Amino acid sequence: xxxxxxxxxxxxxxxxxxxxxxxxxxxxxxxxxxxxxxxxxxxxxxxxxxxxxxxxxxxxxxxxxxxxxxxxxxxxxxxxxxxxxxxxxxxxxxxxxxxxxxxxxxxxxxxxxxxxxxxxxxxxxxxxxxxxxxxxxxxxxxxxxxxxxxxxxxxxxxxxxxxxxxxxxxxxxxxxxxxxxxxxxxxxxxxxxxxxxxxxxxxxxx
Length: 206
Ligand SMILES: Nc1nc2c(c(=O)[nH]1)N[C@H]1C(S)=C(S)[C@@H](COP(=O)(O)O)O[C@H]1N2
Ligand SMILES: [Mo]
Prior knowledge:
Elements: H1 2-15, E1 24-25, E2 46-51, E3 57-60, H2 61-64, E4 70-77, E5 82-93, H3 94-101, E6 109-114, E7 119-123, H4 124-127, E8 133-138, E9 141-142, E10 152-154, E11 167-173, H5 180-183
Parallel strand pairs: 1-5, 2-11
Antiparallel strand pairs: 2-3, 4-5, 5-8, 6-7, 6-11, 8-9, 8-10
Molybdenum atom is lined by residues 32, 78-80, 160-161.
C-alpha cells in the first residue's frame, strides 16, 4: 500500500517534469554524509566569512539569527538517486547574507566549509537565486543534528551534495577548488536535470 502511494506520487512528479532523470522518489528523509555526524553547540557556534570580503567577520547565533529570514519549499535530489518533494525550509537567504558580508566584486565562487573539513563550492551567481538559504529550520523545527544542525546551506538547483551540513564558514574566491565529493569524482556542476552525477569529461573546476 505504502509503495503504491509512493509510486503514484513518483509518476505524478514525472508527469509534472519534477522528477529528474534516473531519480526515484522517497517519502523518508535519508541521512547522507561522510564520517561522523557533527555535534555542534549553537551557543558557541560561529559562522565566518573570509576570502574576497572587505573584512573577515564572524557571526554568533544571536547575530546570525537576527538577519532577515525567508521560507523556501523545494524538491531535493541526491546524486545517489533519491529525490524528496516539497520540502520546507527556513533560514537566512544567501543574498541577504551577502549584503552584510561585504563581498568583493572579484568573487565568483562560494566555498562552504563545514565540520570535519568537508567543503563544497557553488558559483556565487547561482547562490544569489532566491531559493538559496543558510537554512536552520526544516518543517518548522530546528534542523536535526544529522541534517546539519545548527545551520546548513540549501542549494535546491544542484544535487543535494552541494547543500553543506554543519556550516562553519563561507569563503569567497575567484578561483574554484573541488570540494569533498567532487574530489571523489562527483560532478562539480551537479545539475540533476542534466544528470551531471560524475565528473567524466566535464564537470570539473569552474
Ligand atoms: N558536512 C557535510 N555536508 C554534506 C555531506 C557531507 O558528507 N558532509 N553530504 C552531502 C550529501 S551527498 C547529501 S545528499 C546531503 C544529505 O543531506 P541529509 O543528510 O540532510 O539528507 O548532505 C550533503 N552535505
Ligand atoms: Mo548526496
